[in-house]
Structure formats: structure tokens, C-alpha cells
Amino acid sequence: MRKETILPESKDTAFRDLIIKSPGGEKIPTCMQCGICAGSCPVSHEMDYTPRQLVRMIQLGLRKEVLNSNTVWICTTCFSCSVRCPRGIHPTELMETLKPIAMSEGIRNKNAKFDNVFSDVIKKNGRASEFLLISKYSLSEPGMIKQAPFGFSLFSKGKLPLSVDKMEDTGELDAIFKLGEKTEEKAETKTNPGKKETGEKENAEPETEK
Amino acid sequence: MKYSYYPGCAQHGTAVDYRMSVGAVFTRLGIELEEIKNWNCCGVLHVDDRTTRVALSARTLATSKGLDVATPCNLCYSNLMRARTALEDVTLKNRINEALKTKYNGNTKPKHLLEVIVKDFGLAKLGEQVKKPLKIKAVPYYGCLLTRPGNEFDSPENPMSLDNLILCLGAEPVRYYYKTKCCGGPILITDEELALGLARDILMMAKESGADCMVVTCPMCHLQLDAKQKAVEAKFNIKIDMPIIYFTQLIGLAMEIPPKELGLDKHLVPTDKLLASIEGGKNAGE
User: d(Cα B72, Cα B1) in Å, to the nearest integer?
Assistant: First the structure.
């Protein structure tokens, strides 16, 4: 792995503090790098940074590296790391905190695209229909055409209705999804990319824990 | 016994077999599942904003007319459970309630159908309904989100409720080390290669255990392990041929409900051999 010095200007303490304040992040300063999260993770071998490394990078405030890693997107949300962490950190929750922040900063990988398609469908119909989802996602990921035979095998068993499942009354959805827009704005104003550090001591040192 | 029923989106699509077996079994057991009117998706793992996702589940719990909310899906169940925990934060609860017509008050509890059967209905009572002890070996596969991040009815590391259910139906739960390992379902669409590798591990471990079938509690696990099994075989050039059965289908078989009524002809991995060995009373114990 590539090794380089971490420069003070690449550390973003506002980002670090935002993540520490998020659900499941309170105990980040206490991480002792034991690696049980990485060892428990079914997909850590495919990640740019394992959950253990990601937690360390958050301690250091390496905002850019954290938000650009594939780690948050590959996570299958299985919670193995969360139930095993001896310090009470919830890496799974962290991934969920980081996804919207990464998206608000312009990350547009295939996972983000799928999540966007999914959210749009739910916002409009209130329910997910597999056929509609896959069709919409295929528009941005043409490689999905390879899945056509699989789709047909489901269809032939009556498992892929072509009709769109929809709530009878979708009246509340707008208000529900507006809640999220407010959260996103908050995240954007709270972290400030490129903010210089002002004579702080080593970021990773636990500051508040006894 | 009566519950508000939250089917989740898969029941209207890929999990039609699960829906059929739930209907057939619960009606016969006299457990009433009243579908929540105008229910909404839980957001699964793909509505990325946390507040929105909690609000989607808050709406479900709020519209259950004071009854506990029974759901057949591990993903829905996990989201409902997590939302319930998150909503203990009064500020968040008030903010979300502003968006809801029926306000969330925390009086209703989410329950997975497995919990309804094993804990509320009870295995002793279920045992009385067994007409045909199954005499097969079965893998108890719980998946991730039934027991994690945490519920009040089984262990996140070594759950036993499904093992005990299989035993109650006259079958043998095999020793299986990947009971709660991820099947890859959530990343199936976006990272298929990786997802198929996870499914291979789960399926091969099941095959090596000598089991006749795997028993699942989640439509996502079923899609991944049954519908995608052929793709796993092709990608890794292996033969697996492992029937994947919903726990409700297994109960139905032990109650001698016709397999067709349980949707067993709708699987992509054929279940004929399994049904024949159940029919023939194959003795798995020896």
C-alpha cells in the first residue's frame, strides 16, 4: 500500500466532529484498532479501506479519502462489525452517515445511482416494484442488460410482475422525504472542506474519554 | 391472536411463494394477520437519508391500530426495530411526527413472523399441528438482519429459534457455521460479482453439511440463494442443487398442506427431490 505523510491541511476536524456526533459515532475516539470489525466484515477484502482503517481515518479527519472510498458503498449492512465492536462503535451506522454526505458532494458511482433511483421510486409510489427499479437503473447502467435472462426466469415463475405497485394514497410521502432534505442541508453547512486546523494536538487522541 | 401485518414490497413481487405459504399456514394456525392499509416501503438499505428512513418506519408503526406489527421480511423487520430505537430520541420523534398524519407514539412493537410462531404461538402448540414429521436435514439460515443489530428474541451470534423450529417439525437442524453470515443480497444489483461469491460460501457450506435443504426467513436471502443459485453455479463452475425453503413452507409441509398451495413450484431451484424424500419419510437421522 502507498505510504505518504498526512499533512495538517488534509485533516478536517469539523468533518471528524460531525461524524463523531452522528448515531453510532460517539465512541470513535476510543477505537484501539483491534480490527474485529475488519475481521468480521464479509466484504472487507474488496474495500479500499477496511472498517478499521476507515475509523482511524475519521479520527484523523481525512475527509476526502473517507468520502471517496468504496468502503461505504460495498458495505452490505450486515451489522457484524457493530455487534462485535468492543468499544461500542457502530461502523455500519457510520457507513449510513457517510453515504448522504458523499452524495451531497457529488459522488456518483453505480451504488449511489441505484440508491437515487430507489429513493425516487419510493418518493413517488411509496413502494418498490422490482421491474420498475431495474428498468430505471438500467438507463444509467447499460450493463444491466446482461440480467435480462435472469429477469425472464423470475417472470416465468410469476415472480416479476410488470405492473407498478403503488400506495393507494401517497399524500404523506412529500413531507416524509422533505425531512431528509433538511438533514442534508445541515450536513453541508456543518462540515467545511479545506478548513485549516488551528494548532490542535494529534487528532486521534481521545479527548473526552476517561 | 391478532397482528397488524406489514408484508413489505417483496411479497408483491419476487416473494409470491413466501406470501402464499404465510397465508396458508397462518390461516390454519388461527393467527390473524390484518394487512396495514396503505402501507409504505421501509426504505430498505437504499433510502440513504436516515431521518427519512426512520420516518417511513415510524409511519408503519403508527398506522398499525395499536397492534404489534408482524412482518415476514428481515430487512423490514430490521428497519422497524432500528426506527423504534431511534425514535426514543424525543426531538427526532417530534420532528418526524410533524410529517405524519397518524402520529407515532411508541406503543406498537415490530415482530418477525418467526418470532410470532416461535415465541408468541409457541413451539409446543405448533408441535400439535405436525401431521407429518419431516425426517430431513435442514440448514437453519438466519441471515443478517433478523438478529442484528439487535432484537429481543434471539442471539445475534448464535441464534437458535429456527433450529428449534426445524426440530419441532421432525427434521434435523444441521450444524452450520454461517447461520448469520451475509448472503450478499443487498449488493446483488450493484456488485454482482462480489455478491455471488458470498452466496457461494453460504451454499457450499450448506452442501458440505449434508443438508437436504436450507431454511430461510427473508425474501432477499431467498432471491439470492434460490434465484441466483444457477448464476453461482455458472460463475464458479460448481454444482450445488440446494433447495431453499421459507420457514413457513417448511411448517406447511409438516402440516401436510399441498406443496402447490405453499408456492413450492415457484422456486428456481427445483424442490421435487426434497418433496419426494419428505413423502418417502427419508430417515435423515442415521
Answer: 16
Q: What is the dihedral of CA A111, A115, A118, A124, to 10 degrees?
A: -150
Q: Which residues on B lie below 8 Å from A122 (Cβ)?
A: 40-41, 43, 47, 56
φ/ψ (deg, to 5) at A127: -140, 155
From B190, which residue of chain A is nearest by alpha-carbon distance?
A111
| CATH numeric code, A8-107+185-190 | 1.10.1060.10
Q: Which of residues 42-81 of A touch B (CB under 8 A)?
A: 42-43, 46, 73-74, 76-80
Q: pTM, whole model, 2 decimals?
A: 0.92
- Topology, domain B2-112: Glutathione S-transferase Yfyf (Class Pi); Chain A, domain 2 (1.20.1050)
Going from N- to C-terminal start, the domains of chain B cover 2-112, 123-279
B131 touches chain A (CB under 8 A): no
Model confidence pLDDT, tens digit, residues B194-226: 999 999 999 999 999 999 999 999 999 999 999
Rounded Cα distance between A17 and B154, Å, is 35
- Cβ under 8 Å to A: B residues 195-214: 198
pLDDT digits (tens, 9 = 90+) for B90-107: 999 999 999 999 999 999
Tell me the nearest-neighbour CA distance from B107 into chain A, angstroms.
Answer: 21
Q: ipTM above 0.85?
A: yes
The topology (CATH level 3) of B123-279 is Rossmann fold (3.40.50)
